[in-house]
Design brief:
The chain has helices spanning 4-12, 20-32, 39-52, 66-75, 88-100, 119-123, 139-147, 176-193; strands spanning 56-60, 80-85, 107-111, 127-132, 150-159, 198-203, 209-214, 218-219, 222-223. The chain is an alpha/beta fold. Strand 4 (127-132), helix 7 (139-147) and strand 5 form a beta-alpha-beta unit. Helix 3 packs parallel to helix 4 (66-75). The longest helix is centred in the last third of the chain and has 18 residues, at 176-193. It is globular.
């Protein structure tokens, strides 16, 4: 039986970043474990942006700017991306990478904690697409904050919802701190399913992605 990790690696082998710098960023992230979105998941997110014609994007968790750059390339002319990061070293490196791609007019980095009220984020609302890729223990809180700045037909994407497959066997995670974190991710997935105003689909691409869309269908007797 082929393992999921091997299948993921097979699928990822067919994805290619647009520039040499992006490929260098992927290698650096892998070498020193910088948390960027896995290339196969990123490729799907780019397709989602193209399918929906998304232009206004909010990203929670900039890291070195990898995802925001690739989203900007997929969204094309007229895109506006706000990305939130609190680590100053990450902000400095992301700024260099964004400028190297000449996307400084498209991507704006907000220095701050995504769990807090940030005026710069609110000022650009509403967003067509919001990507949650920050502190996993705060996902539920971040989702709730995102709802208030999401467009009526908007989409919220949550990355890493499978957490290296550990959500499928939580009891096997013996390290206490890691066990708590995995339980938080699992609880978040159940939280998404229980949201009355959203439909969520879970995908096994990358490290797992949840795609949550606002419900807009009106049935007899009211909305559901």
């Amino acid at each position: 039986m082929v393992e999921f990790k091997e299948l993921s690696a097979y699928a990822a082998a067919f994805t290619h970043s647009e520039t040499d710098l992006l490929r260098q960023m992927e290698k650096k992230a892998a070498d020193i474990y910088i948390p960027i979105m896995q290339p196969s998941a990123m490729a799907f997110l780019q397709q989602l942006i193209r399918w929906t014609g998304t232009k206004r994007i909010l990203e929670l968790g900039t890291a070195i700017g990898y995802s925001s750059i690739r989203m900007a390339l997929a969204a094309g002319k007229g895109a506006e991306i706000i990305t939130v990061e609190r680590d100053q070293a990450m902000i400095e490196e992301a700024t260099k990478n964004i400028e190297a791609h000449n996307l400084q007019d498209t991507i704006k980095i907000v220095n701050g904690d995504a769990t807090e009220d940030l005026p710069e984020v609110t000022a650009f609302a509403p967003y067509d697409l919001i990507v949650i890729d920050a502190a996993k223990a705060q996902y539920e809180r971040l989702f709730q904050k995102c709802v208030g700045v999401l467009a009526d037909d908007g989409i919220i994407v949550s990355d890493n919802i499978l957490f290296h497959g550990l959500v499928c066997d939580i009891d096997a995670v013996k390290k206490r701190q890691l066990n708590r974190l995995v339980k938080k991710v699992d609880a978040y997935n159940h939280f998404l399913v229980d949201q009355p105003s959203f439909d969520t689909v879970f995908l096994t691409v990358g490290d797992g992605m949840a795609i949550s869309t606002k419900k807009t269908y009106t049935a007899r007797g009211g909305n559901y």
